[in-house]
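Postdoc handover notes: sequence design on the structure in folder B. Input tokens:
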């Protein structure tokens, strides 16, 4: 099981200030009243892992993920999210670090994203490949959000198989096989 230790967010949706969420347990549920930001946390995780669809992030365009300002706060030009994982059991088998951080930055004026793994700049494909080896992808069962259960129940057998492959970590091998 992969263990998300921490989420660091700045300028992402409602996170106008630098925010750090520490998780002490491998399985975490986020609860709270309507409007408290639960879905924004889920969106931050999916976005950092490479989500490209603004609609999946509950927006009309990618600019919508950047804090747009309020009556007492100026708008920001950049959004940044870092996910920090415990890798002591080598869930990320290709990375020889006890902690793995995945960071995404988005700049509103240039409309460009930057990706980092443990502080080193990488491509989106690199982030997706590292996440794929753990079964932690934007569509996996590791993150269950509102509507995920009904989508799973209503999905076709082929779609369910894809989800199980990702959760079991075999989707990476199928992807490599298709490249050959």
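Designed sequence:
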């Amino acid at each position: 099981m992969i263990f998300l230790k921490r989420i660091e967010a700045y300028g992402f949706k409602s996170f106008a200030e630098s925010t750090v969420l520490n998780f002490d347990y491998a399985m975490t549920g986020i609860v709270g009243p309507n409007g408290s930001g639960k879905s924004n946390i889920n969106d931050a995780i999916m976005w950092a892992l490479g989500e490209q669809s603004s609609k999946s992030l509950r927006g009309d365009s990618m600019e919508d993920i950047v804090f747009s300002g309020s009556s007492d706060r100026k708008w920001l030009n950049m959004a940044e999210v870092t996910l920090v994982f415990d890798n002591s059991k080598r869930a990320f088998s290709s990375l020889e670090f006890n902690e793995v951080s995945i960071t995404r930055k988005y700049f509103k004026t240039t409309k460009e994203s930057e990706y980092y793994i443990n502080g080193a700049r990488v491509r989106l494909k690199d982030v997706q490949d590292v996440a794929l080896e753990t079964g932690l992808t934007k569509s996996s069962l590791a993150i269950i959000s509102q509507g995920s259960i009904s989508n799973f129940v209503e999905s076709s057998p082929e779609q369910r198989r894809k989800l199980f492959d990702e959760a079991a970590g075999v989707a990476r091998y199928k992807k490599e096989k298709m490249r050959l």
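Context for whoever picks this up: The chain is about 25% helix and 20% strand. Don't rerun without checking with the PI first.
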